[in-house]
Specification:
Blueprint: E1 3-9, E2 12-19, E3 23-29, E4 32-37, E5 42-54, E6 59-70, H1 80-113, E7 121-123, H2 124-127, E8 131-132, E9 135-140, E10 143-146, H3 159-163, H4 170-176, H5 181-185, E11 191-196, H6 208-218, H7 229-239, H8 242-249, H9 256-266, E12 285-287, E13 290-292
Parallel strand pairs: 7-11
Antiparallel strand pairs: 1-4, 2-3, 3-5, 5-6, 8-9, 9-10, 10-11, 12-13
């Protein structure tokens, strides 16, 4: 069966912002379409409703459509199979056409309708008042977050958050967490704003271990000399804090499988005269179906 589709026009009206999370509703989005087949059937889009969620990188379009089909055939049984195939094809083509045309037609409009709200400025005087377990604000990298409801769910326990309430915890946070960790775990409304000034930082007495660690950090070897995971581990052990090293070096159960696999690989010997050019290497692979740049991962 031969099918051709022509998108004649797109009419977009009544775009409204309906909540603070940048959702938009459009009640009159009606692509006018002509669909021609070998046995003269026509499908007309009769009603549609869309929800648009604007983001900085993409426009997600969800469509709910109703289609009406009309045909002039007097023998339904003769064309029943073709009709079913036609109906399924129409649904697929129409959904794709609507999503594509909606993205093109509304991307600029939605972006214009969703101006970025400037972040709120939080004074230091206001910030330091929120220094209790039931009212816990913390500064991380210049941003003020409300961690009150997250204290009970913090994987590292309640104490680190309670101790840093009303303080700037950027240094401690950056040692243990990857970029984007807060955005992944805290709701957007827990971001209070930007700190206006210098928030107080907890004073920590430097012991001999910390002094030695800071000296090791200042004398890190060149990255080009760190060629394998064992080298990374050796350097990390000398430059990470006690808490960070305990976090990254710990494992589940007794790590018998890890040790035995390590010993098994050590029993494999390579003939030294068989060499491979490793000037340009690619360490990327997949873990559980997810692309990764190196064949190991960390979790937080």
């Amino acid at each position: 069966m031969k099918l051709s589709v022509t998108l004649l026009a797109v009419k977009v009206q009544n775009i409204q912002r309906i909540d603070r999370d940048q959702y938009f509703e459009c009640n009159e989005f009606r692509p006018i379409m002509m669909l021609r087949t070998g046995f003269s059937k026509t499908a007309t889009l009769t009603s549609s409703k869309f929800l648009f969620k604007a983001s900085r990188q993409q426009l997600k379009v969800q469509a709910q459509t109703q289609l009406r089909y009309s045909h002039n055939s007097s023998s339904k049984s003769k064309y029943h199979y073709q009709y079913q195939r036609f109906r399924n094809t129409i649904l697929g083509v129409t959904s794709f056409a609507i999503a594509a045309s909606a993205t093109l037609a509304l991307s600029s409009t939605v972006c214009n309708e969703a101006p970025q709200t400037p972040p709120r400025k939080v004074s230091v005087e206001e910030f330091v008042k929120h220094n209790k377990p039931d009212d816990c604000w913390i500064v991380v990298n210049g941003q003020v977050y409300d961690f009150t409801d997250f204290i009970a769910h913090h994987p590292g326990g309640r104490f680190p958050l309670i101790r840093n309430a009303g303080h700037d915890a950027s240094e401690t946070f950056n040692k243990l967490h990857a970029k984007g960790t807060i955005e992944m775990n805290l709701p957007r409304d827990k971001h209070i704003g930007e700190i206006d000034g210098e928030a107080p930082v907890l004073e920590v007495e430097l012991d001999d271990f910390e002094l030695a660690r800071q000296e090791n950090v200042a004398n890190l070897p060149p990255l080009g000399l760190i060629t394998n995971v064992h080298d990374f581990e050796h350097v990390a052990k000398n430059v990470l804090s006690k808490g960070a090293w305990a976090y990254y070096s710990s494992g589940a159960d007794d790590e018998i499988t890890l040790r035995e696999n390590h010993y098994a690989y050590q029993r494999i010997y390579f003939r030294p005269r068989i060499l491979v050019d490793v000037k340009k290497i690619d360490t990327s692979t997949t873990l559980l179906g997810t692309p990764t740049s190196v064949p190991f991962y960390r979790c937080w």
